[in-house]
Amino acid sequence: MTQTPASPPPADDEIDLGRLLGLLLDHKWWIVGITFLFMLGGGAYATLSTPVYQADALVQVEDTGGVSAPLNDMREMLGREPRASAELEILRSRMVLGQAVDRERLDLIVRPVRLPVIGDFLVRRDWDRSRAAVLGGVAERYAWSGESLTVGDLRVTPAMEGETLTLQVTGEDQFRLAHDDRVLGEGRTGEEASFLDGQIILFVEDISAGAGARFELQRHARLAAIRDLRNRFQATEQGNESGVFSLTFTHTDSEQARGALNAISDIYRRQNVERQAAEAEQSLEFLEEQVPQVRARLREAEDALNEYQVEQESVDMSMETQAVLDRLVDLERQITELEFEEAEISRRYTQNHPTYVTLLEKREQLENERRELQQEIGGLPETQQQVLRLQRDVEVNQEVYVQLLNRMQEMDITRASTVGNVRILDDAAVLPSPVEPQRGLIVALATVLGGMLSVALVLLRGMLNRGVESQEQIEELDLPVYATVPLSDVQQKLVKRLRRRRDLKSGRRRGATGEEGVVTGVLASYSPTDGAIEALRGLRSSLHFAMLEAADNRLVITGPSPGVGKSFISVNLAAVCAQAGQKVLVVDADMRKGHVHHAFGEASAGGLSDLLSEKLTPGEAIRHTDIEGLDYMARGSAPPNPAELLMNERFTRFLDQASEQYDLVLIDTPPILAVTDASVVARHCSTTLMVVRFQLNPPREIEAARRRLESAGVETRGVILNSMEATASASYGYGYYHYSYK
């Protein structure tokens, strides 16, 4: 069958979407697990969170009412200012909210101490003290459903505002007060108690709780309580310039939410009535000041007209003059009304206010008309002009005088019957179900967040881990791949089983000695048909031909970094070679952390380091195994100078002797990028192979290891790709072919 070659791998700086998709498929159960944990966490949070209730009310601000009634026609003429924004600011003002804080005592917090985390949840599920008794003495320390504390008064100094005081019930009508675990004193209900030399004055009216129950008390600064109230309170206009405002207030206590919102609505309505009454009182005072002055001007105008008529012997006005007079009197009346209006609104607005500007523009227009009319009057006979002026003064002052008297009566009636222009349409009512937490939304968001986070972690880990995933990546470095060894599940189980057995025997915790081996047991003997062993048999054939032209029969196994499986490859490759009839010696040249002895269940002492230190002879250091034809030499006691020992002439003589006695001498060395031991050993051998691990060693690291060997004069003959897995990420990116045939 012809196979389509895999596409070339992407460069390191390119994003391989297929590989990323494969990573997600490889870690699908991690993603599902993390997402599920987040979903459970969101559900737990939504269930344990304290519910928040919302109270709502409806108020209306009418366009007329109070002082605005007699001035309504004038304000319609001038243009009415928008009231919505002003009324909303009044609703949020400290004047209104501060009185609500005082009335509802929102600056005083009395909170029972519940069981941490789940206490409020249990109370909401109607747990009482009798049911909580199953918790033993813990139940006595906390408040459950039904406990209450009525505080008549709590006064503290500014320095103690916001501090938490703990009141613990000690007996019937008795309590103990503490602050920061410091007992301040004791008191009784119905009696005022003083603590800290008068810094705290507490009056408890009633206690309904068993001995041991605790309550937290706080007295906040008034401004802080107003700010908290403003944060919980919302006021919005329904529609555009409708004058109807929707008020809402949220709190964990539904009754407190309803009471606070009712207080705000009532205080807002009362201040509106008081403001309208105060405006009526001010307008009435102004009118009472103006009436005597207008009456005096009227009397003077009448006297002047009478005197002129007597002097001129009763001059009558013509019809033309009478018409001009009527027009002039009407203009004067309008101008006078604007002057009164200006005097009234000047107490509330500046001259830059739109209402004030409109009034001034209207007044200027009327005065221009008056000047034009006066020019027309200048064309009349002198006698008619004088009579017209005197008659105008009389009629204008009469109009103004009558108008003032009417206005005074209206203001007097308004002051006596002020009801304001605010009415409460709907009293505060609390919704039966809480508005927070929204359990479905929280669980959904937590699930989405968990899924996104798990996917991001998998992708980030995959992007940061650029270890090789195919032999093509290695061959791009001009290094032949001698074998691709799949990850062995049997070996993984064998490692765990024998490791536990060794730990139980030694009485040490796993990894306590730093000798947590990569190899434990010889897989070639335990499971000779395993896929990894079959791959090593293929490597055995490749090595047979590769070493035909070699100067010696020595093979060095090294790797770029720890944990790549060098010892596993060394031991099992030696085993399959011995099973083929060769006489093989495995030498553990990693005298620092070698693990070859673990494969055969023995100790490391009495090995290569002891041989090179002349403590043992080769015959004493070499150990026989149960596999016919396979011998090995452990690392020996850990020496302080392993590199110097390997450079000793004794190591060369040992290798020469071993080459004569064995068909294959296989040497397991430390990682080349960690120490120089591998390059020292490899100079004595003609064949060096590098073991790299799937998804662990990136191409740059492999290239660095090869350059390190080349700098020591050692040529890397090839690479063994170990622990290859059939992952979706590798399959998507490069293609992976491995078949089992049994």
Describe the overall structure:
- Helix 10 packs antiparallel against helix 11.
- Strand 4 and strand 5 form a beta hairpin.
- The chain is elongated and about 160 Å long.
- It has 742 residues and is α/β, with parallel strands linked by helices.
- The protein is built from 26 helices and 20 strands.
- The N terminus and C terminus are likely disordered.
- The strands form four sheets. An eight-stranded mixed sheet has the order 13-20-19-14-18-15-17-16, sandwiched between helices. Strands 2-9-4-5-6 form a five-stranded antiparallel sheet, with no helix packed on it.
Feature tags:
single chain; 742 residues; alpha/beta; eight-stranded mixed sheet; five-stranded antiparallel sheet; 20 strands; 17% strand; elongated; disordered N terminus; disordered C terminus
